[in-house]
Design a protein that fits this description.
With 177 residues, this protein is mainly alpha-helical. It contains nine helices and two strands. Strands 1-2 form a two-stranded antiparallel ribbon. The protein is elongated and about 70 Å long.
Length: 177
Amino acid sequence: MRQIREILRQKWCLGQSHRAVAESLRISNGTVGTTVLRARAAGLDWAKVEVLTDEGLEARVYGPPTPPTHHRIVPDCAYLHTERRKPGVTLELLHLEYLEQHPDGYRYTQFCEFYRRWYKRCGFRTIMISQIGPSRSPGSVDRDHRDRHRDHGDRCIVITPPPVLGRASSVGRMAGA
């Protein structure tokens, strides 16, 4: 609950410092300063504060509550995930497509954040697989010492779905044993 009346009483009637008011009410100095500035900007003094109700005082100091102006459409993360599997499709391209359909939609950073949260919630794991050069037998010698430091292969990212545990899973059998 806001302590507007008590902040203003201690400041205007008792003449206490911001720090003393903050310590006595266990709030920050910034809260005290902001409340006093807002009350002055609203044209309030202690005589006017005394006659106002708590709701009326809060409305004068902080203004009436404002409802949200509009709601943005959240991207369809399952669709994004399916599309990302196609070659050459990036989140940036999917975001541009999303903005064509929803011009007032989320900007790129928030768009990616929705997708990352969904991805994490679904339990997908991303595994980086690296194949480095032709396989060599343990006894073979490198012709050029630089071959040991060179990446000869391709990398690919494998996305694995979360594990599904049923009655026949090893965890279930071990727990019942």
